[in-house]
Specification:
Length: about 600
């Protein structure tokens, strides 16, 4: 089947109506909760839903918050170009959720905290908390700006959907319902947007398969094009995607994003109980697997559709991220409303990610800075202050999205920020939760050095991109492209002469991007422990048992004696711990 690249299809009135619907409904949810909860004016109610959320909507919110439009547009393109090894992320997701649910969430939930970084002050000192919070704020604003701008640009250049209109609409609507309804509005809006994302994906899967010629054709073409070669067990850490880089490196990357990220922790501690929080995480795993499967399947179907005529190589699109919207306009363009449904799917990912970021930024700023400066602030004043912070960060994220339009190639580097910051963040929380003897100097030093090494690695990779034999792109064909009157942008870029490559560029800088988090994590933990060793460990009596997770219990389950040896003098006996908590309280360090 030859692709004619019909480009006469554009957005129609019904498409705009469908797209506008998600903004109207999301705003309506904010208004609903603003009216419903108008008598509950405490900051606790606004920021963490009164800790009365159930597991179902929280699970949908968790999935929607981290499956952004970059996933909706970028993941199918990745499968199209590199093959279905993307599905191995399901292993990374599974390991990540298990570790988050069993290692991190119990500590955060039992500590009675609202900001994840509050834990760092309880465990170490205020300076560590402040440094970690500032890193999180900068990282989240930059990343959120890119999450808004990148997909809006891709959709604009293919569908001619107004770029600046979509950016400002996203910022305004997210700020509106975050400010009015607080966390409850964010969670229920995310749940709605998650449904829209799945429906949009399913529409593309069904119509794409039909237009390609059926499942048999899709399977045969994907098999012949090597797109179904999923498992590559090469241990080379320089290869972009192998079983090990995705399962191990992906686990560290997503643990940094999920396990110790304020957006995740805030939703988990908003649940009615620790059991509900864990249940939400495991239900969220099902959502992650569904989105992963839909994205990978969309990429396979898109490859089968363009089997003999790659739009990127032929010059019909400027960048790989535009392949998915181009494909959607080609298969759905004559069905009014359906292109709008897919754009709604992409922007549902954007709305949920931006809303989660705004709410989390407002929470950490209020808890980590405002409450420390105004210790006697009333609940009513605290609620209004929290709402004001939502407006400020909504404006900041929107401004960052506008700034991203002037960043050029730096956008690519900004997309790795979660990996560069997530690993060291994961490392400092691991030092606190897993190693009771770690002191504040070790935590602060390990964090800063971990961030420096992660940024050095990522920026080196940006200047010296890995050679193609390490990234392993699969062949694409234009043999079947029919002559058309379509305006082409350019053929696929011809590699330009690169800077002379040193040994460092061909080894360290060529590392798979999925290992950035692992590098930051290992650096933070090892250097943190070494600094602790040289400066003197924290006395056991200064560490509260509920701030530590005794994972040694798993490995020494057969011996009470060895378990107690591994406790390093801390008392983790359940009955004694309950009595101690009842006597001292969780927050006696504050």
């Amino acid at each position: 089947m030859e692709s004619s690249h019909r480009r006469d299809e554009t957005f129609q009135i019904l498409d705009y109506v469908v797209f506008a619907g998600i903004f109207v409904i999301s705003s309506g949810i904010g208004v609903f909760f603003a009216i419903k909860e108008r008598k509950k004016t405490t900051s606790r109610e606004f920021l963490v839903g009164g800790r009365q959320m159930s597991s179902g909507p929280v699970a949908l919110s968790l999935t929607a918050s981290f499956m952004s439009a970059i996933t909706v547009l970028g993941a199918p393109s990745d499968v199209y170009r590199f093959g279905a090894s993307f599905v191995i992320f399901s292993i990374a997701y599974t390991l990540m959720v298990m570790l988050t649910a069993e290692l991190f969430v119990p500590v955060f939930y039992r500590s009675g905290i609202t900001s994840a970084y509050e834990y760092l002050e309880l465990r170490f000192c205020k300076a560590v908390r402040v440094v970690a919070t500032l890193i999180y704020i900068v990282q989240t604003i930059v990343y959120t700006g890119v999450v808004v701008y990148a997909p809006a640009l891709a959709l604009n250049q293919v569908t001619r959907f107004n770029l600046w209109g979509s950016i400002f609409a996203t910022g305004v609507v997210c700020t509106f319902y975050c400010t009015l309804g607080g966390l409850k509005a964010v969670v229920w809006s995310d749940a709605f947007q998650m449904v829209v994302m799945v429906v949009g994906f399913l529409t593309v899967l069904v119509q794409g398969t039909k237009e390609t010629g059926g499942l048999g054709v899709v399977w045969d073409r994907a098999l012949n094009g090597s797109r179904l070669n999923v498992f590559n067990f090469d241990l080379d850490p320089l290869k972009r995607h192998t079983f090990w880089t995705i399962s191990v490196g992906g686990m560290f990357t997503w643990l940094g994003i999920y396990g110790v990220n304020q957006s995740t922790i805030q939703r988990c501690i908003s649940c009615k109980s620790e059991r509900h929080a864990k249940k939400a995480l495991y239900l969220n795993l099902l959502g992650l697997l569904v989105i992963c499967g839909c994205a990978a399947s969309s990429g396979i179907i898109m490859y089968a559709f363009y089997y003999n005529c790659d739009p990127w190589t032929a010059g019909y699109v400027r960048a790989p991220d535009q392949l998915m919207p181009f494909f959607v306009m080609e298969i759905l363009g004559k069905l009014p409303g359906l292109p709008g449904l897919f754009v709604a799917c992409a922007f549902s990912g954007t709305l949920s990610s931006v809303a989660a970021s705004i709410n989390a930024l407002a929470t950490v700023t209020y808890e980590d800075f405002v409450k420390n400066c105004f210790r006697n602030i009333s609940d009513r004043a605290g609620t209004w202050m929290s709402k004001g912070l939502c407006v400020v960060f909504g404006a900041a994220c929107t401004a960052m999205a506008v700034s991203a339009s002037y960043m050029g190639g730096i956008v690519q580097a900004a997309l790795s920020i979660h990996g560069m910051c997530g690993g060291p963040m994961l490392g400092i929380f691991s030092l606190g939760i897993l190693f009771p003897w770690t002191n504040s100097k070790g935590a602060a030093g390990g964090l800063l050095l971990g961030v420096v090494l992660s940024f050095w690695t990522a920026l080196g990779a940006f200047v010296y991109p890995a050679p193609s034999h390490k990234t392993l792109p699969l062949p694409l064909s234009t043999a079947g492209c029919a002559p058309t009157n379509v305006t082409t942008f350019h053929s696929r870029p011809v590699p330009t002469p690169s800077l002379p490559r040193s040994t460092l560029a061909n080894s360290w800088y060529s590392m798979s991007y999925l290992y950035y988090s692992a590098v930051g994590y290992i650096t933070t933990v090892i250097l943190g422990l070494l600094i602790t060793l040289f400066t003197g460990p924290t006395p056991v009596e200064d560490v509260k048992p509920w701030l530590i997770r005794p994972v040694c219990n798993i490995f020494c389950f057969w011996s009470e004696k060895y378990k107690r040896i591994c406790w390093c003098g801390l008392e983790h006996d359940k009955e004694k711990l309950v009595r101690q908590i009842a006597h001292t309280g969780y927050n006696d360090c504050q």
